[in-house]
Amino acid sequence: MAISEEFLTELRARTDIENLISQYVNLSRRGRLSKGLCPFHGEKTPSFTVYPDSQSFYCFGCGAGGDAITFMRRIENLDYVEAVKNLADRAGMRMPDDGYDDTLAKHRQRILAANREAAKFFYSTMMSPQGKIGLDYFYGKRRLSMSTIKHFGLGYAPDSWDALLKYMRSKGFTNQELFDANLVRKSEKDGKVRYYDNFRNRAMVPIIDLRGNIIAFGGRVLDDSKPKYINTSDTLVYKKSNGVFALNFAKNGNPSKLIVAEGYMDVIALHQAGFTNSIACLGTALTQEQARLVARYTDEVILSYDSDEAGQKATKRAISIFSQTGVKIRVLKLTGGKDPDEIIKTYGKEKFQSLLDGAANDIEYGILRERDKYDLDSLDGKTKFLTAVADILSKANPIEQDMYATKLSSEMGVSKDAIITQIRKSYSRRAAAEKKEQFKEIMRETVSPKDDINPERAKHQRAARAEDILLALILHNPDFYKKIKDKISPDDFVTEFNRRIFESISYKLENGQGIELAHFSAEFTPVEMGRLAQFMTMTSMLSNTVEECEDCIKVIKEEKTKLSDVDPSNMSDEDFKNLFIKK
Predict the structure, then answer these.
(1) Beta partners for residue 197, in sequence order
(2) pLDDT category of residue 440 using cuts at 50, 70 and 90
(3) What is the mean pLDDT of the chain?
(4) At what angle do helices 526-536 and 461-476 cross, to 10 degrees?
(5) What is the sign, positive or negative, of the torsion defined by CA atoms of 549, 550, 555, 557?
(6) DSSP letter at 130?
(7) d(CA 499, CA 492)
(8) Which of 26, 49, 200, 464 is most exposed by smallest CB count within 10 Å?
(9) What per-residue string of b and e applies to 21-44 under the rule 16 or more CB within 10 Å gives b?
(10) Radius of gyration of the chain (CA)
(11) What does the DSSP assignment read for 187-229?
């Protein structure tokens, strides 16, 4: 997807990466750099760094990095052309009418258009006599108003194998487009391919992203048949591990606090009752990607999962994941019903509001859970309870530890000093376990370093290191290229990934193009761009001399020669046989 050099240069000049990223990450200026908590992985100590001088970013924790285009691709789940368009809109620039191939972007737009048309079909079907069963479910059984039904775009998929397929074909969509949108499935028999509707006889809920696009659907059965839910699989426009239902509405409600419910029907009921800051994370379990997305829009989450065993397990997992994002966590104790929808229907929204007002923080929730496990009238139960609570408090800050220790001392008849001592023991034990695990991880990386971006690095560490430094030197000093280009070629490189980078750099410089990070975004994935950004951070490790380039070239060629020496194609028959003779 080649967008003109001139356009990318102007876009880069008009885009302030620090200003762009600060809209998603709370940055603190430190000299010429800015730092913040990485939006791409959970961390408590900032390792995400923005470099205004080079208009780049890099996370020393997870390796994410690149330019403004790469950041938009990762943070908004966009393809290359969409990310460029997004930045161009922000900069007040018009995309060129030609000069780039946006086939993938056009296909994404067709899938989004198909989803919009399918949503219209599901809604109109529900409002027809054929869809009365669907309307009865939402309006009658779920007690949703017509206003709520329209607000969320709810609908009904008829009990037919091809009703949607025929309708969508009449609107100009192809079988392949519908299949790629996961609106239809296909089967093959006797060499013939048959397409059929994915959703049949189901109450339909559209999933809408933050830009107002319908990216997926959830379909619920209207009887006791299985599976209870059929949801859109991952597509070009939807990744369920990133999906958050109703965040497009909730971010405009009371975003300082977001209520996280278990399913979209709970969320819809909560919105109807006036709790418009309610959301649900899609998929079978909360993911770190979803938690980080939610944390971008709020300072506090209130977990409102079902009161059954599965719901409580989900709550425990959510506390662990959200605690890595820096948001404040509170947990709702649902009484009077198994889920928010049931509580509101039975007791009204006032009851749910009172539960919200009394929601415990994550520490209090943990203590309450442990309290229910033990007989506190017995010495054994009391000992086990306080030991478990000490483990919970070992993760708290010193002020919280002191406050809870004082309260527990008075309640349990145990000295505060004894509780504090147990907390410190728990902390030491946990810290030692974490240190041991970190050491194991370091040893694993040392013995067999894993590099998904450049997988050949493990076998050729000396060559890969020299290649890295050479590439970093050229990226920082483009004028060095003319002085060394006759001394090395792409074929000299040992690792394929670094060879690709060198080929790209060579092509650009030979054709008078720039080699800023923005000029690589089209040909490297966002993950691969992280490695190029890493090269840009290596300034302090380089002497920035042509001699250093020549030293690297020498090492690269030595390592390449070693490989050639053991290449069977370069061996005599006798030498080849000797490879398999044990010495």
Answers:
(1) 184
(2) low
(3) 87
(4) 70
(5) positive
(6) G
(7) 8
(8) 26
(9) beebbebeeeeeebbbbbbbbbbe
(10) 29
(11) EEETTEEEEEES--SEEEEEEE-TTS-EEEEEEEESSS-S-SE
Summarize the confidence of residues 22-42 as an average pLDDT: 88
What element of type H or E holds 301?
A: strand 300-304
Residue 148, token pair as written in the block: 């709520």
Handedness of CA 345, 138, 216, 248 (dihedral sign): negative
Decide if pLDDT at 217 tops 90. yes
What is the spatial distance between Cα 517 and Cα 12, in angstroms, rounded to a whole number?
Answer: 10
Q: 284-290 contacts: CB < 8 A, separation 24 or more?
A: 285/314, 285/317, 286/314, 286/317, 286/318, 286/321, 287/241, 287/242, 287/321, 288/41, 288/42, 288/321, 288/324, 289/241, 289/242, 290/241, 290/242, 290/243, 290/244
Residue 77, by phi and psi: left (phi above 0), alpha (psi -120 to 50) or beta?
left
pTM, entire model: 0.68
**Mean pLDDT along residues 63-83:** 90
Q: How far apart are CA 447 and CA 483, in angstroms?
A: 37
Query: Which pLDDT tens digit goes with each residue over 455-510?
Result: 998 889 999 999 999 999 999 999 999 999 999 999 999 999 999 999 999 999 99
Give the number of other Cβ atoms within 10 Å of residue 243's Cβ: 24
Tokens of 57: 């970013």
Q: Is 257 helix (H, G, I), strand (E, B) or coil?
A: strand
Residue 117 pLDDT > 90: yes
Q: How far is CA 213 from the centre of its chain?
A: 18
Distances (CA, A) of 456 to 160, 444, 450, 460, 552: 52, 17, 9, 6, 18
Cα separation values, 499 from 288, 468, 504, Å: 33, 10, 9
Give Cβ neighbours of residue 459 (< 8 Å, ≥ 6 apart): none
**Phi, psi dihedrals of residue 203, rounded to the nearest 5°:** -75, 130
SS3 472: helix
288 neighbors 42 (Cβ within 8 angstroms) = yes
Can you tell me the mean pLDDT for 347-363?
87
Provide CB contacts within 8 A for 46, sequence distance 6+: 28, 35, 36, 37, 38
Sign of CA dihedral 335, 338, 343, 346: negative
